[in-house]
Amino acid sequence: MTAYIFRRLLLVIPTLWAIITINFFVIQVAPGGPVEQAVARLEGHSSGIMERFTGGGKEVQSAEPGDQSSGYRGSRGLDPEVVEAIRKQFGFDKPLLERYLDMLKNYATFNFGESLFKGGNVIDLIIERLPVSISLGLWSTLIIYIISIPLGIAKAIKHGSRFDIWSSALIIIGYAIPGFLFAILLIIVFSSGNYFSWFPLRGLVSSDFAQMTWYQQVADYFWHMTLPILAMVVGGFATLTMLTKNSFLDEINKQYIVTARAKGLDERSILYRHAFRNAMLIIIAGFPSAFISIFFTGAMLIEVMFSLEGIGLLGFESTIQRDYPVVFSSLYIMTLLGLLLNIISDLTYTLVDPRIDFEGR
């Protein structure tokens, strides 16, 4: 198993390199890069901001209306020296290949640089946003698993009954409701004051969180997390519940279960000592990848609606602003975590069922 893990870890390097490389060159051709963003901001603000790029004391001369010598659309009202200073500040005075090689070298040592527009170190920005994303991803995944697995087993045992039919109908309805739409409903009913004001509208914790006792802090944290988590989990039951049901149905109809029943074993023992372990193999082993998918892909709209400063919102804002250091570092970290969790997922298979031997393959 050690050799298998080592090979998988080695494969992380070329996979990560390929993903980062493709995204780097694709985003370079996207219009409205950071230089254009900065030029647009300068043209819309006072000359005091422009002094930041001109050294503070130099008088800025406007270019002629038809001058496009800077090479940037929207920069016709600025001195070309100002535009060149902006390009140098963002590192765009270097050739594309040199910027790419610098990025690879820095990311190999986890040096993600500074944000172009938000200010501060990129890794500090990401760490600052992690509690929100981890909270949403972890609790949503746990709740979905805790409810879906028993529900799927119950549906398999009572396959074709009224309970199975009605629960399937409710699950499909929940799956059809977008999370953001359900979030709007929760806000209107429980936070707006039109009906109830039971839960806060924004933030991960209250403003006086630091002055609370530890148990008050725990209660305050879950008070703020209740509605966002509910909005995220409402549509997450369908796939896992039906996967659990079908996996369990397939298992309890196999020959070894029929043989166990013929021997007179207790039905509960047959279901939960024999069928459960094999049926849950794919469900339990898929937990790491399920967590990473909810952690990174399902939270952005929820973060926006509940004013939660998480990784999803940070990535969206950075993409709109073309804040390349934040965009690429977020992608780098997400990809690395995803690849490592895939390895953990494989290891989970062997823990759930020791008969599985990846080394033998």
Automatic annotation (TrEMBL):
<keyword id="KW-0813">Transport</keyword>
<feature type="transmembrane region" description="Helical">
    <location>
        <begin position="326"/>
        <end position="352"/>
    </location>
</feature>
<keyword id="KW-1133">Transmembrane helix</keyword>
<comment type="similarity">
    <text>Belongs to the binding-protein-dependent transport system permease family.</text>
</comment>
<keyword id="KW-0812">Transmembrane</keyword>
<protein>
    <recommendedName>
        <fullName>Inner membrane ABC transporter permease protein YejB</fullName>
    </recommendedName>
</protein>
<dbReference type="GO" id="GO:0005886">
    <property type="term" value="C:plasma membrane"/>
</dbReference>
<comment type="function">
    <text>Probably part of a binding-protein-dependent transport system. Probably responsible for the translocation of the substrate across the membrane.</text>
</comment>
<keyword id="KW-0472">Membrane</keyword>
<dbReference type="InterPro" id="IPR035906">
    <property type="entry name" value="MetI-like_sf"/>
</dbReference>
<feature type="domain" description="ABC transmembrane type-1">
    <location>
        <begin position="130"/>
        <end position="345"/>
    </location>
</feature>
<keyword id="KW-1003">Cell membrane</keyword>
<dbReference type="GO" id="GO:0042884">
    <property type="term" value="P:microcin transport"/>
</dbReference>
<feature type="transmembrane region" description="Helical">
    <location>
        <begin position="221"/>
        <end position="244"/>
    </location>
</feature>
<dbReference type="InterPro" id="IPR000515">
    <property type="entry name" value="MetI-like"/>
</dbReference>
<feature type="region of interest" description="Disordered">
    <location>
        <begin position="56"/>
        <end position="76"/>
    </location>
</feature>
<feature type="transmembrane region" description="Helical">
    <location>
        <begin position="279"/>
        <end position="306"/>
    </location>
</feature>
<keyword id="KW-0997">Cell inner membrane</keyword>
<feature type="transmembrane region" description="Helical">
    <location>
        <begin position="9"/>
        <end position="30"/>
    </location>
</feature>
<feature type="transmembrane region" description="Helical">
    <location>
        <begin position="169"/>
        <end position="190"/>
    </location>
</feature>
<feature type="transmembrane region" description="Helical">
    <location>
        <begin position="136"/>
        <end position="157"/>
    </location>
</feature>
<dbReference type="GO" id="GO:0055085">
    <property type="term" value="P:transmembrane transport"/>
</dbReference>
<dbReference type="Pfam" id="PF00528">
    <property type="entry name" value="BPD_transp_1"/>
</dbReference>
